[in-house]
Write a structure and sequence with these properties.
It is built from 23 helices and two strands. A two-stranded antiparallel ribbon has the order 1-2. Strand 1 (448-451) and strand 2 (454-456) form a beta hairpin. The protein has two domains: 6-271, no CATH class; 286-475 and 517-529, no CATH class. By secondary structure, the chain is mainly alpha-helical. Keywords: Membrane, Transmembrane, Transmembrane helix. It comes from Halarchaeum grantii. This is ABC-2 type transport system permease protein.
């Protein structure tokens, strides 16, 4: 096997850099967010450099244990970020099939390794400049600044390459294992829940501290000895050992990357078995929806659910509002008592997510099959009813049980919890018709970029905004009447007790979402019947 041609590697890296810049420039909002994010990161790193300049002048050997913990934690953080990037999107280039038939896979692997190492260094560029400079000025030693730069560069590059190789190893398992392929949606959902809990509770900080301390006991943490060697009596042998370990890690990661990337790119993926299973399943009956509607509507509902299950990347946007739960969930774990706001959030969110995920782009979700579906004999009413059925059958039980469970754990009275749970289920029924109507009026047929390497047909931003606003307005009366503090305030303005607003508020919300659902259902049916190729 011939050695990789470095000119080919450099050309691939340059091409990928241009592609990434072009993708970023496609959206002005994306560029703005990127500039804001990098600006904030740069300011934080400059602030770290200023702190180093102010406090590093009197550094002693007593800081070495803490520095080792920091080095270990930073190394694990970069490994995790890089591995997650590979798992989520950065495991291939655009036009990968053509690239692999043009140059050997080893050259593509080397190019990707260079891209990942450079991409990992880029966010830390201000720190790589400011921190060594500040450390050298504070200690009065140019050698100290050089040692700090060398230690930081070794930390970031070695961690990025190890994370790259680790990500490809895990992705190979996901691609080649039939078991993982069959349950990948469930695994991804559990991973998101675990990440959310770690991010919003004290468990995340405790885990991070435990991992950092554990890694501090390994030789990779000796990079702190290398950074401090010129100014404190750190161990020279530890610093040398850190450099040797970095060399071993870099070489091992590069050597392991060659077979792992080739195995992934040329893999016989485990998904065909799953597709066969789904095909067999859908050829028999419209699943559990047959009991609710054995006609075309049941098939439409079942197809919507199967489509969402087989392409969960399209549902990523549905999970974004969950990050707003950080405060209430953190408070619940800290105090042992569920805040009342969490009950209302669950009630509205489940209904919103069910409609947005299954019915907000009914025409666009058909894709190239829309002309076939429109001429298949399925009526517009059956088409719209199928999306409403999918939203109601999936969302209503989850909304009712979820709201009831969270409500029981909260300070709300049983009566309020029961009313909120019933209304939450009713919101799901109306949300299906509302989402189908809004999505049919504001469809999106073209695929958009969800991640760097994945495109999917998702609802338009305008449809998303209109649907969300209308559903929130419909849910507002029961949210006002369902919570003691707000209902007492409103009741005082109206001259009645807060409790007396509960049933009228629930009836008003159910009536509003019912009217919106019926109007949306009729409009979706009319749009489907009136579709012209």
């Amino acid at each position: 096997m011939r050695r990789p041609t470095l000119a080919h590697v450099a050309r691939i890296v340059r091409t990928e850099a241009r592609r990434r810049l072009r993708v970023l420039s496609e959206s002005g909002l994306r560029v703005l967010l990127l500039v804001f994010g990098f600006g904030l990161i740069a300011l934080l790193q400059v602030a770290v450099g200023i702190g180093i300049y102010l406090f590093a002048g009197g550094v002693t050997a007593s800081v070495l244990p803490l520095a080792r913990v920091g080095a270990g934690g930073a190394w694990v953080l970069v490994v995790g970020i890089t591995a997650f990037g590979v798992l989520s999107q950065r495991s291939s280039y655009d036009a990968m099939d053509g690239l692999l038939t043009t140059v050997p896979s080893r050259e593509v692997t080397l190019a990707m390794l260079c891209t990942e190492a450079g991409g990992a260094l880029l966010p830390f560029a201000p720190l790589l400049v400011v921190a060594p400079l500040a450390f050298g000025l504070a200690t009065g030693s140019a050698l100290a600044g050089a040692a700090a730069f060398l230690a930081l560069a070794c930390l970031v590059v070695s961690a990025a390459l190890v994370g790259f190789t680790l990500g490809f190893g895990v992705k190979n398992l996901a691609v080649r294992s039939a078991l993982v392929a069959r349950y990948r949606t469930l695994i991804a959902a559990l991973a998101v829940v675990a990440y959310f809990l770690l991010l919003t509770t004290e468990a995340g900080g405790d885990l991070a501290g435990t991992v950092a301390r554990a890694v501090a006991a390994t030789p990779i943490a000796w990079l702190a000895d290398l950074a401090l060697l010129p100014v404190v009596p750190a161990s020279a042998s530890a610093a040398l050992g850190a450099l040797c370990l970095v060399a071993v890690l870099v070489a091992g990661a590069v050597l392991a990357a060659f077979p792992l990337t080739a195995a992934l790119w040329y893999a016989d993926r485990a998904t065909p078995a799953e597709r066969d299973a789904v095909a067999t399943e859908t050829s028999l009956a419209p699943g559990p929806f047959a009991r609710l509607d054995a006609g075309p509507a049941g098939w439409v509902a079942y197809k919507s659910v199967v489509r969402a299950r087989r392409a969960p990347v399209k549902l990523l946007y549905v999970a974004y509002p969950l990050f707003a739960l950080g405060g209430p969930v953190g408070e619940a774990f800290a105090t042992g008592l569920v805040p009342t706001v969490l009950v209302g959030y669950v009630a509205v969110y489940v209904a919103w997510a069910a409609g947005a995920g299954l019915a907000l782009n009914p025409l666009g979700d058909e894709g190239a099959l829309l002309p076939v579906s429109a001429t298949s004999g399925v009526s517009g009413r059956a088409f719209a009813r199928g999306h409403l059925l999918a939203t109601a059958a999936i969302g209503a039980p989850v909304a009712f049980v979820g709201t009831a469970v969270v409500g029981v754990l909260s300070p709300l009275s049983p009566v309020r919890v029961a009313v909120l749970a019933v209304v939450a289920a009713g919101l799901c029924v109306g949300a299906g018709g509302l989402a189908a109507g809004v999505g049919s009026a504001l469809p999106r047929y073209e695929a958009v970029r969800v991640t760097r390497s994945r495109r999917a047909t998702v609802p338009s931003l305008l449809a998303f905004a209109v649907y969300s606003l209308l559903l929130l307005v419909a849910a507002l009366p029961v949210m006002v009447a369902g919570f003691p503090g707000v209902s007492s305030f409103v009741g005082g303005l109206l001259g009645v007790s807060g409790v007396s607003l509960l049933l009228p508020g629930a009836a008003l919300s159910l009536g509003a979402v019912g009217v919106l659902g019926v109007l949306g259902y009729r409009h979706a049916a009319a749009c489907f019947d009136g579709y012209a190729v």
